[in-house]
Amino acid sequence: MTMLEQGSITIHTENIFPIIKQSLYSDREIFLRELVSNAADAIAKLKMASFAGELSDPPEPEIVITLDKEAKTLAVADNGIGMTAEEVKKYINQVAFSSAEEFIHKYKGKEAEQAIIGHFGLGFYSSFMVSRRVEIDTLSYKPGSTAVNWACDGTTAFTLSDSERASIGTTVTLHIAPDNEEYLEPSRIRELIRKYCDFIPVPIKLNGEVINKQKPLWRTSPSELKDEDYLEFYRYLYPFQEDPHFWVHINTDYPFIVQGILYFPKLRPDIDPTKGQVKLFCNQVFVQDNCEEVIPKFLLPLRGAIDSPDIPLNVSRSFLQNDRTVRRIGDHVAKKVADRLNELYTEDYEKYVKVWPDISLFMKFGAMNSDKFFAQIKDILIFRLAGSPADKPEYLTLQSYLERTREKQNKRVYYATDEAAQSAYIDLHRSQGLEVLMLDSWIDSHFSSFLEREYKEDGIQFKRVDSELDETLVDKDKAAEIVDPVSNKTRSEKLVDLFKQALGKDKLQVKAEALKSESVPAMILLPEALRRLQELNAMMQQKPLEFLEEHTLILNTAHPLVQNLQALAEEGRDPDLVTLICNHIYDLALITQKSFDPASARAFVQRSNEVLTRLTRRQ
Ligand SMILES: Nc1ncnc2c1ncn2[C@@H]1O[C@H](COP(=O)(O)OP(=O)(O)OP(=O)(O)O)[C@@H](O)[C@H]1O
Description:
Belongs to the heat shock protein 90 family. By secondary structure, the chain is an alpha+beta fold. Helices cover 39% and strands 19% of the residues. The chain has 4 domains: 3-210, Histidine kinase-like ATPase, C-terminal domain (Heat Shock Protein 90, 2-Layer Sandwich), CATH 3.30.565; 217-348, Ribosomal Protein S5, domain 2; 381-470, Rossmann fold (3-Layer(aba) Sandwich), CATH 3.40.50.11260; 474-619, Four Helix Bundle (Hemerythrin (Met), subunit A). Helix 8 runs parallel beside helix 10 (371-377) and helix 9 packs antiparallel against helix 10. The N and C termini lie far apart (121 Å).
């Protein structure tokens, strides 16, 4: 081989290699993505040249990776456009090196891993992260070109000489550095190709076998695809997972290009909606998972892929976050998702209702995170009606709830958080024609406050069924209000006194009301605002929720037990039994609201036995 030229790369930072090696240590593997993308670009360029008539009979495109464990080399060969000696000097010595230098200047001193997404922009240069020496053998498609060999051992010196390469294209050979021998393992290379280059539309071969899928489904026109194609693609991306509910195919090319498929997976209600699963691609090359700067955070529980060449990737994250095009792409993707949800709601309501438990968390989270998204989906947010059968639940939108109950409920939205525990309250409301909505997921306490703020002007208020008694739920019990001339007190007041004395709790409020239902002798009310505040505090301090001391005991004067008890008290025969029963009625009301601590549970059981013993005693 005759040496053509020896030279020195003009860069202004000495020893930039160690800096880059150091700062990108954890992500060295991206070198392969860079080399394969360059190879694919070179193949695309050759195709363009042949379209333009510059070359007849272009070869069948392919990228071949060759591993040689003995020689410790990894070679990436393409049959693309190739480079002339002049082009090598220009593109490799100048472009590649100066962009690496620029990278170092930009990010020196900063946390480089934080600085750029997927380290785009480093290009060919990233090969030095894993190599002690890099060689390029290339032959340009241009008529009359000769093949050249470029070699560099990671200093600023390079050599340029003749090459034996006979066919058009480029081979980049990495002489792998000692602690990087993992990149000589076929399994590791397969893994990396699958991760980064699976959808590059050129066959990538290793040991004679094609190891990439090539066809990204999102590039196919939606009209050509069947449900089974989407499902198969999902199973490929997320193996061993349940099939998704539905999906949205995004295929936009103006004013920016963004393509992709987002799937709505079967979400468990306890899933953390901030953990992302959406893969970001740029021209079919994988960039990263969970790209929060590009895909709005609330869309992250979805799965699938978004591909856009219009996202500037060789910039810092904060730049990306503030970039207008990126924001518009994010908004656009969110709008497509909202459109798909609206379409499902209007065209297949039955399915919408069926998947609602799985998508509701995502939608509520999205509504609270983005005003735009909220505006797009607010009319399709639905709430299950308490009391509707579990196998055929009935749902209402907020609007339809309010319209249906306009006269009776006066913009109040009654809700329950636990259908079983609050059943007495729910039944009381329903028996008087007041509908109750279920808000029973962890996000709902925030979500109801959010809706109150959003609908502030309409004066909509959310009231849990146990927060106060609507006047439609109580009868005006005239008899109870007659003043007894001896004590100067009404019957209600006397009943309240009786309980206050028997229970001896200062903070407890006691009220006597004639409820329009005889189902329970007493119930506990928790003031809405205080209860919410307490829930918030418990959440912020990550403490278990304590039972609110400032609660009210409502005694139902329409219930025979309360009436009998009052008569018994007036007889004055057995004041102990009266006290016992007062405590028992209170505990029975409490039991649906909180779990007892061991001491109260023991007292409750003891008292129950005592009451039963007395009842069965022969006079
Ligand atoms: N396999 C190849 N065949 C032909 N030309 C190549 C090949 N690899 C690199 N080049 C040339 O070298 C240039 C520099 O490559 P490098 O990977 O550093 O940067 P880039 O591809 O331009 O940008 P980036 O990789 O950062 O997106 C390329 O633009 C291309 O002209």
